[in-house]
Amino acid sequence: MLDKARETQLLAILGLSGFASSFAARSTDPMVNAIAADFSAPVATVALLSSCYALPYGLGQPVLGPLGDAISKGLVLRVCLVVFALALGAGVFAGSLEQLFVSRVVAGLAAGGVIPLALAMVGDAFAYDRRQVAISRFLAAALIGQLVGVTASGAMADWVGWRGAMAVTASAALIALVATLLGLPAHLNARAPGRFSFAEAMERYRLVFANPRAKICYGAVFLEGVAIYGVLPFVPELLQARGGGGATQAGLSIAGIGLGGILFSATVSLLLRRFPVHVLMRAGGVIGGLGLAGVAYAATWPALTACFGAVGFGFFMLHNSLQNRATELAPTARGSAIALHAFFFFIGQALAPPLFGVAFHTVGAPVALAVCAIVLAATGVATGSLLNRHDMRDGTA
User: Fold this and answer.
1) Per the database record, which ranges form the Major facilitator superfamily (MFS) profile domain (predicted)?
2) Between 108 and 266, the higher pLDDT residue
């Protein structure tokens, strides 16, 4: 464990990396209509840019997590940031939609080694009794990145075009890379004496799944991804249909999720003192579900922002608890456990836009969002109950 000054330094540097990763993750959502118009492509096709980031992000986890455990979390993090910044920069100069898709795929794959490994490093550095607060502080930086990313991307798409917005995204990644190269504590950059072994990676995964809570946690984050992230690429289309504005307003609306998450991060210490974690999980699912239900009927972008704020507050109330649980599923294979957490979460995110798109254009937004709301609420209630039952059985409640 580090002293407090070094803990603060580590959180600041890792937080900057999380900021850059989250900045890029949802940056294309408010620009879908603008990119579609530029390349004369269907909106439903361009909406898959978010899936092309999320899917490789998730698929890379089974390799990147064990690689960090075996070699060095800090070393793998730095390499991923290099590739991440280069891929985002390439997207600025994409001459076709296909090239833009490729740049997002590579960026998503590289980003898969940023937040999960940073979370694992937080887990290594902080004692369990202070870890959830530390994780919430790290997530606050990531949430601010998401908030600024969708807001700035939407505004800049209207102001200087989507390429200018992507240039800002690439610049954020470059700044995070420089900070990590110069400021990450030396012992975290050192190469571990081991080497990557497929057999050892499988053994780490077996160790993680030996904990009966693993299936509950990973199933829950998968359903979170499916329930929440399907609607986001279609927010510009929703607003346009309701006469609510363009890319700027879409970005501001989606930013509500980040605002809700920041509110949760600011109140997490108070909430943890007053309520058991399983209660927060149940409440988070219900609050997020109610927010999604409201999205179906919000007629203006401020109303939509408020609904997404409820989604963000409830989602992070549930998700933060699951992330903290993931750090303890297998303490000797923490990087692998966090990688699996991200794998299931981002696979859910990748599947969400095409699934929501089919439902949206078949049965309409109210029905599609009602299903998402029910899934999220049920996930929170069921997960909180199941994990509490395991804790009571083991005497850890």
Assistant:
1) 10-391
2) 108
